[in-house]
Amino acid sequence: MYKKYLTSLLLLNMTFFLSWVCVKEVKINQIASTQAFRMEFLSETTQEEKKSFLEVVACVSSGQRVVDYEILEKDMQYNLSDKDYDSLLRIVEAEAGGEDVDGKLLVANVVLNRVNNEKFPDTVTEVIMQKGQGVAQFTPTVDGRFQNVTISEETYEAVERALYGEDISKGALYFCARQKADSGRLQWFDQNLTKLFSYGNHEFFL
Question: Phi/psi of residue 196, each to 5°?
């Protein structure tokens, strides 16, 4: 008898619960069908999508900054003394003051290529001041330009690029400005060296 009573009570509770669920579902469907609900739902969905999009953008941007930072964090290839650094700035300005940044970079490259070559002195200042058979290797060292130049921002930039290892010179050890050089020196360049390329007002040789 008790089992029959409990079974009936259980069925009654289940019927009541299912009826409550159905009523709630009807109310939910009614609310969902209203314009206000749809607008609010779409607004919230759009905000979530916008938030997700912004989070992705922020993540990508953050990653890009890390990549850029790593690219910029290069090791300096040449650690010059203050004297050598000043000498390099001065000779680049004196020899390539009218050139663009790459034209200045090329002059710095030639000087550093000589420092790395066993046929030339081991320091920047010694390379710049070197004389061959009594003739200055770099004319500005004897005509006053080397001592009296004003260093431009482009020259600072070019020298920094060279010191960090950027070399666009193809290994050049010599350069000349054909329009300004005397015929004797030009003849020596043409007969004894291999021309690599021209850039700006200069020709570069190996």
Answer: -95, -50
In the three-class reduction of DSSP (H, G, I as helix; E, B as strand; rest coil), residue 139 is classed as coil
Whether residue 202 contacts residue 172, with contact meaning beta carbons closer than 8 Å, is answered with no
pLDDT 10s digits, 37-51: 444 544 555 555 555
| Position 71 pLDDT exceeds 50 | no
- The sheet with strand 202-205 has its strands ordered as 174-176, 202-205, 195-199
| Upper half-sphere CA count for residue 204 (Cβ side, 13 Å) | 21
Instruction: Kindly state the tokens that stand for 15.
Output: 């019927």
3-state secondary structure 146-168: HHHCCCCHHHHHHHHHHHCCCCC
Q: How far is CA 34 from CA 29, 39, 133, 190, in A?
A: 9, 9, 98, 89
pLDDT digits (tens, 9 = 90+) for 10-28: 566 566 555 554 545 544 4
d(CA 23, CA 16): 11
CA dist 70 and 68 (Å) reads 5
